[in-house]
Amino acid sequence: MVVPGPRSWHYRRSLASRVTLLATMAVGLAVAALAVAAYVTVRHQLLDTLDHSLKSRALAAAQSSAINRLTREEVPSWVVGAADIRIGTISASGEIDGTRSQGGAPITLGGPELSVARGEQTWTCRTITTADGDFRVAAVPSNEPGVALVLAQSLESNHYTLEKLGFVLFVFGALGVIAATLAGWAVARNGLRPVRRLTAKAEEIARTEQLDPIEVEGNDEIARLASAFNAMLAALSASRDRQRQLVADAGHELRTPLTSLRTNLDLLAQADQRGGLSPESRVELMDDVRFQIAELTNLIGDLTELAREDSTPAAVEPVDLADVVTRAVERVRRRASSLHFDVHAQSWWVTGEAPALERAVTNLLDNAAKWSPPLGAVTVTLDHGVLRVADQGHGITDEDLPHVFDRFYRSKESRTLPGSGLGLAIVRQIAERHGGSVRAGRAEPEGGAAFWLSLPGSTTAPDSAPSDVVTTP
């Protein structure tokens, strides 16, 4: 049982909803950052403006000779330019006069203001909280030695302005996030329409198995995805056609030896009912049965080899192709003892499967032996990774040349000879699996058919052993 992880809920959502959610989160974070920056900037600007205003007023009032009247008598605060300002003084000894207006709560002064009275600082400005609210308090030296003039102005108007600003930022930020959500959803729905169409097409293909290509629109990433999907469909369709063709051809080729076996067995049964066959006829019939069984065995082996088209090689190792050629020649020479094999093989090291390579070389040699005349010669040359096998037969016609490596293809002349038409197809498959190639043509000066098998490699073994030249008469 698979237990969903803590983030699996996110991936259970549709792609459009995830894009919308990400767009909303991004816009929301941007709006929040801008709102905070705007709020902090305005707050700082308001305090800075207020500080400069208080400082300039305090410096102007400090030059007045009536400073004592301003602080000790009930003088209207509009005298210093504002109706919400409290005026007071603080001496170097800590004596405080004023800072009370209209019966309001006193403002407690402290060290910063006292340092101005003592001449340690030119001026100070800070926020002090009282029972009546927050006040911005500025202190400057007065015209009396050892006394500092203190002006305090309420921050109520600043707080009101900031509250209004915060409300406006919140409302417009929320509206912006909502608008971004709607826009993100619309963009996601419109932008992902090709993806939905591609998904629907893939589901239709899975349901109907109709490998029709998808219409490609534009040249963006979705169009590239659709093109790649069409390429995959084409490859899948070709693979399915090859599979069907292989099954059909295999069924046809398997039917021939099976029909022959059934016919021979029926003849044997009927002959036994009539008293049996003569020894010579029985031997001939049994030889034919053995031949058909051998043909059937070879055909099954060839089909098995072709079925490994996309499989991983079982044992890949450095292989000297000259040794492979020598072994293959010895095997074919035993089956075609009347032929002469002229072999010149220079050492050529490849990386691959030794049994598969030997099978490919053997198939080429068997094909040459099948078409060579009695007492003919087969020329085998291996030079710098190119294996040439030439016979002295009648050669390959121009009509058959493009098809000699097709599966189950057999020319008109070969239909009366043993074989399944898979040998050369297996050669091409093994060559391509090892990164090489094979081609056919006319042999000169032999006059028959020639095949060239090319495989990548080097003249030296992996351990840098010197190359040898193997010549077989």
UniProtKB/TrEMBL annotation:
Cleaved signal peptide residues: none
- Tell me where the transmembrane regions lie: 21-42, 165-188
Organism, per UniProt?
Nocardioides iriomotensis
- Positions of the Histidine kinase domain: 249-459
Q: Where is this region: Disordered?
A: 449-473
- List, alphabetically, the Pfam families matched: HAMP (PF00672), HATPase_c (PF02518), HisKA (PF00512)
- Coarse class of the primary localization is membrane
Q: Which domain of life is it from?
A: Bacteria
Question: For this protein, what is the EC number?
Answer: 2.7.13.3
Location relative to the cell: Cell membrane
Catalytic activity, as annotated: ATP + protein L-histidine = ADP + protein N-phospho-L-histidine
Protein name, entry field: histidine kinase
One term of GO molecular function: phosphorelay sensor kinase activity
SMART domains, sorted: HAMP (SM00304), HATPase_c (SM00387), HisKA (SM00388)
Q: Does the keyword Transmembrane helix apply?
A: yes
How would you classify this enzyme at the top EC level?
A: transferase
GO terms under cellular component: plasma membrane
Please tell me whether the keyword Transmembrane helix is annotated for this protein.
yes
Keywords on this record?
Kinase, Membrane, Phosphoprotein, Transferase, Transmembrane, Transmembrane helix, Two-component regulatory system
Question: HAMP domain: from which residue to which, for each copy?
Answer: 189-241
